[in-house]
Design brief:
There is one protein chain. The chain is of the alpha/beta class. Helix 1 crosses helix 5 and helix 2 runs parallel beside helix 3. The longest helix is centred in the middle third of the chain and has 16 residues.
């Protein structure tokens, strides 16, 4: 497997091997573990629940596991598009699985395959990332996630394949996390922030943008995994704060002590800029459409469920700026 995978606790399991849970602890599957939400979920589980669970981190390619090197996790490479090879992923009576919904145009189809796999392999509680106001279906992303949520509702209550200790009552109870845009998205604008400018398509004194720290998403998932029965079948809104464009700049200034001024840009310019940063054209357009949705006062009255799930208030954007942006500005 090469020098990167020659030591414990890193365990890389080939998809064709029989998997054994040597720890005896319940296994939590994180699929896909090298993504932004997948990574924070892995870290949260290891930091706070390492004595309670074994984390099985799923990646599509072995090369994608490098960021997991040295962590006390089982790593397995698998592709949701090859359902006949997924048995090792869900071996040892996995009952909870986290799905970091991919940023691809076929995300709805891939997530449906994940839900089907949960039914096939006996997972009661799939935890799935969605977006705010997915039920509205007003934007490209909302339509994609609405298709995912509709499928989850259709399959909810379906008996899952019987596992070793099942009494015949196992049924699918998906848990949906409608997440705001991530605070961490601001890293794509580091260059302009270093020049003291924040370019964002949020207009002037118009709608408020909800956003959230990835760490709060990880914390929410950890709390849900610790007691999934309480959360089964529920949908939550994961929001940190609401800000106008100028308030985002002010929070960065407060957190980093580096003066930043907000400069509104039109949607077309913003989409071109995101595309130039390496974002696929469809995704850049979808991101800007989502920001425009908030600018036009969509999604302004959504209550955050972070405190309801975790028992603590969500992280403020200024605190995130101090923790993660300050070193770059």
């Amino acid at each position: 497997l090469g020098s990167n995978f020659n030591f414990l606790p890193l365990l890389f399991i080939d998809s064709f091997q029989t998997l054994k849970n040597m720890s005896g602890k319940p296994i939590i599957v994180v699929f896909t573990a090298n993504s932004n939400t997948g990574s924070v979920v892995v870290d949260e589980l290891l930091a706070k629940y390492g004595d309670d669970f074994t984390v099985r981190a799923v990646v599509r390619k072995k090369a994608n596991a490098k960021g997991l090197e040295g962590k006390d996790v089982q790593i397995i490479n698998a592709d949701i598009k090859q359902p006949h090879l997924l048995k090792p992923v869900f071996a040892d009576d996995v009952n909870v699985a986290f799905w970091a919904t991919p940023t691809t145009e076929d995300r709805a189809e891939l997530t449906k395959l994940f839900v089907d796999a949960c039914i096939e392999y006996g997972v009661d509680f799939p935890i799935i990332i969605s977006c705010l106001d997915a039920d509205k279906g007003a934007t490209v992303n909302q339509k994609m996630f609405k298709a995912i949520e509709d499928y989850c509702k259709e399959k909810e209550g379906t008996p899952v394949k019987r596992q070793m200790f099942d009494t015949g009552k196992q049924t699918l109870a998906p848990i949906i996390l409608r997440c705001a845009p991530f605070y961490q998205n601001i890293f794509g604008m580091i260059s302009s922030l270093q020049q003291g400018l924040l370019y964002y398509p949020l207009g002037k004194n118009e709608g408020f943008m909800p956003h959230v720290d990835l760490l709060d998403i990880g914390k929410c998932v950890g709390c849900i995994i610790a007691d999934p029965t309480v959360h089964g079948g529920k949908t939550y809104n994961i929001i940190g704060e609401y800000h106008m464009g100028n308030q985002v700049a002010t929070a960065i200034t407060m957190g980093t002590k580096h003066s930043v001024t907000y400069e509104p840009v039109d949607a077309e310019t913003a989409a071109m800029a995101f595309n130039a940063l390496g974002m696929e054209e469809w995704n850049a357009n979808a991101l800007v459409e989502g920001l425009t949705y908030f600018k036009n006062e969509g999604g302004q009255d959504i209550p955050s469920d972070v405190e309801k799930i975790t028992g603590s208030s969500p992280i403020k954007f200024s605190a995130f700026s101090k923790r993660e942006l300050k070193k770059f500005l």
